Each structure stands twice: as structure tokens, then as C-alpha cells.
Amino acid sequence: MAIQTTYSETMDIARAGLVAGSDYDVETGVVETEAGIAFGLAVAQGVSDKGIILGGTTTTFRGVSIRDVTLGAETDLYAQRKNIGVLTRGKIWLVPSSAVVANAPVYFTAATGRFSSTSGGNVLVKGARWVTSAAQDGFAQAYFSGLQRGVDA
Asked: What is the pTM of this model?
């Protein structure tokens, strides 16, 4: 039985959580958030040593949940108690919750993990910037230097 029988002539520009480029660092953690964690969202240190939760604070921020193509088209999130890939340094495609402009600082909303360039009540990610501009809910690349984890950029 064939798994795939149709093919698109073109590739999509991006998807949330898709790593952009080949120079990046990724760590593996274990999802503690009961509802799971979708791709391309801010994640933080959980309770256990390798634990990962959605959102977080400036001091607990770990990185961004990366897209895992091995999970298949039927899911777009990491389930609770499953391994999760977390980008700590490099470029990644995100779906911003507000319009963003290239070279602006990157913020995230603690409760939802969504990224933006708006500071009002959001958490600043040290050493991060938007690489490309985009409208709200569009696709934009962001660069994370690794400074949030004390890693040299």
C-alpha cells in the first residue's frame, strides 16, 4: 500500500517551527504540559531536569519548539511525556501574534508561547531578533543567539 500518492509541484515557504538554515543548536526535553506543545512556540524549563513547559519567563526560557516531520501530518504538536526538540540557537520560522519587522526584538506571551515584537506584558528574549518582516499570523524568521541559555553567540 502506497503511503503517499500525490505530490505538490512546489514547496510551502514555511511552517511554524521549521528550522531555517543549517547552523543551529537543538536540545531534547520531555513535555510536561498536559495539553502538549505545538510547533514554533516558546518553551521553558519544567519541574524535572529535562522537563519542558509551554511559555515561561525570562529566567526559565529554554528556546523554541521545532517542527518534527516524523510525527506525520495528523498532528502538529508534541504530546505530554513525549520527547520535544527545542531550538536554542539559530533561525526558525514562526507565526507571530502581531505584525513584526526585521531586526526588531523578539518577545513571547508567557501563557501561550506565541512570539511577537510587542513588549506590552510580554517576555523579552535576550539575544533574539526578527530576521524577516511579516503581518500578524504570517510567517517570519527569527534568530535566537543562544544568549538566553548563557551560550556564546
From this structure: 0.88
